Structures are given as structure tokens and as C-alpha cells.
Amino acid sequence: MTLLETLRAWAHRLKRDGVTLWFAYRHPNTPLLAKALCVIVVAYALSPIDLIPDFIPVLGYLDDVILLPMLIWPAIQLVPEQVLAECRLKAAEWMEREGRKPRSQWGVVFVVVVWAAVAWAVWHYAIEPFRGL
């Protein structure tokens, strides 16, 4: 298997696991902590906008390559095996039938809230102290 094929397979699994968590947070046998983490991961992973836009060189893709796997992995670990297997099957069926991942409007809200918090922090801690000088 070439490096490109390996990366494509990894990206496909990552996308599938994002959809898997979408099903897992709705599953009645998923523990509360896992559901909470699933909601955060799904809101971001399935959001139509990114925390760091992809048009920003290098940084735009780092959130997809580093941040998402760092969020998906612990969420997957917290979901019970039988629930995970069932949700992975549902995710595979969804992606085959729909040909795309679902969208999360909560993800847009999450990203906008993070942007607003960063803008407030920059204003409050970096700009405001120097206004009186």
C-alpha cells in the first residue's frame, strides 16, 4: 500500500468515526461522559465551517489532521464496544447511501462561539490595556 493510499484510508476512517460518534451520542447505551464528548466532537467534526479556515496555509489543515484525531480517539475509547460496532455499521451504511457526512448546525454555533471568545480575549488582554497609553 502506498503512502497516498494509506492516507486516504486513514482519512476515510476518520470521517467514518466522526459519523459513528454522531450515531453514538444518540444511542441509549452510551455513557453520559462519552455522550458529552461525542456532542463536542460531532459538533466540530460535522460543522460546515472549520475553527481554522482551510485557506490559511498549513494551519488550515492542522485542525483536520491533529485536532480532530485528538478529539475522536478519546470519544471512541469511551463508547462501549457493542455500541461502537453498531454505530460504525450505521455510519458505513449512511456514508454509502448518502455519499457524504451529515452536517451539524451546532458545529457552526460552536465555531462562532470559539471565534467570539478568542476575539474577546485578544481585545481584553492584548488591545484594551494599551488604549490609555
Automatic annotation (TrEMBL):
Chain ranges passing through the membrane: 106-127
Localisation: Endomembrane system
Keyword Transmembrane: yes
Membrane topology: Multi-pass membrane protein
Keyword Membrane included in the entry's annotation: yes
This protein's UniProt keywords: Membrane, Transmembrane, Transmembrane helix
Positions of the DUF1232 domain: 34-69
UniProt xrefs under Pfam families: DUF1232 (PF06803)
GO cellular component terms given for this protein: endomembrane system
InterPro entries in the cross-refs: DUF1232
Predominant place of localization: membrane
Protein name, per record: DUF1232 domain-containing protein
